[in-house]
Amino acid sequence: MPASSFGESSAHIRRRRVAHYLRTESGAAVLLVIVTVVALVWANSPLSNAYFELWHLDVGFNFGPLRLHMDLHHWVNDGLMVVFFFLIGLEVRQEFAHGSLRDRSRARLALIAGVTGVVLPALVYVLIVKLAGSEGLHGWGAVVGTDTAFMLGTLAIVGPRLSGQLRVFLLTLTVVDDFLAVSIIGIVYSEEIRIVPLLIALASLVGLWLLGRTRQWRATPYVLIVIVLWFATVYSGIHASLAGMAAGLLIPAYATQRHGVVAARQLFRDFWQSPSAASARAVDCGLSQGISVNERLHEFLRLPTALLIVPVFALANAGVDLRSGLLAEAFGSPVTWGVIAGLVLGKLLG
């Protein structure tokens, strides 16, 4: 075999191996670390102005009475990351429906851990700031939430053998933790909550629940309602991640039924004997009906979320300027130590 052909074959094999690795949780986590380092280097390089100007770039649209404008940083955090939290909600719903969380004791433990993971960090923060006699007690909201994307990425790197056992527990804990944290922050810290968009968001959640009750198998109605839910949540002033998690939890999940597989097989036989556009559509619909809309949406969103959305989130949020001396000044503040103790000690105890 010519050397050039062998080289091309080897390069193709290497690319295929890299692509396969990136599709794993560990590969996606390594990509997350790489992008985080890139963000830090960029934010502390001579091109740092370009980094911060990029994320403050105003992006929006006007469509009739609808007007939505945010900087690029908010589009990432309140837009793209909603898909990530939606994916978490989908996975937790699957576990409650036909996974390990069908065991009530396990589900109860995760729920309790989620609640204590919100309460104890806030108490630790208040205790430290109070003992130091410092102002800033109102900042306790900074420690009640968990950075889910980085937490799951870290778990995939440092404990690949344990991640399968702990993932469901951590996902459930995270959903409870973030639900409580976002709700508390929304109520305590929001300057204004708009009632009409909030009511539309609640109506959208009811719509998702009704679709699930009627066993609607097509994904399109769910997706359209989720889009309406996102718009309404953003306009209401509540953090959009709450909408993503709530929507994911309401998408029905069920184990593949044998009769659905048998029906799909018969439809495929009909297509094999008499191929046509109509029979092809029937096969597609039959296969879709055999698998829950939850699982289909999860499979569709999993790779784009891991390989695009979460890395973009890291790029937008991990860039901290360490050159200005603000970091040293921050470590001299009791508020900073309260945040560190709350997030480390409080979360571990919780």
Please sum up the structure shown.
With 350 residues, the protein is mostly helical.
The number of helical elements comes to 15
> What proportion of the residues form beta strands (DSSP E)?
under 5%
Number of domains: 2
What's the CATH topology label of the largest domain?
A: Na+/H+ antiporter like fold
- The CATH superfamily of the largest domain appears as Na+/H+ antiporter like domain
What does the average pLDDT come to?
Answer: 78
Q: Describe the global form.
A: globular
CATH level-1 class of the largest domain: Mainly Alpha
The CATH architecture of the largest domain is: Up-down Bundle
Protein name: Na+/H+ antiporter NhaA
Organism: Pseudomonas helleri
Pfam family, one: Na_H_antiport_1
Keywords: Cell membrane, Ion transport, Membrane, Sodium, Sodium transport, Transmembrane, Transmembrane helix, Transport
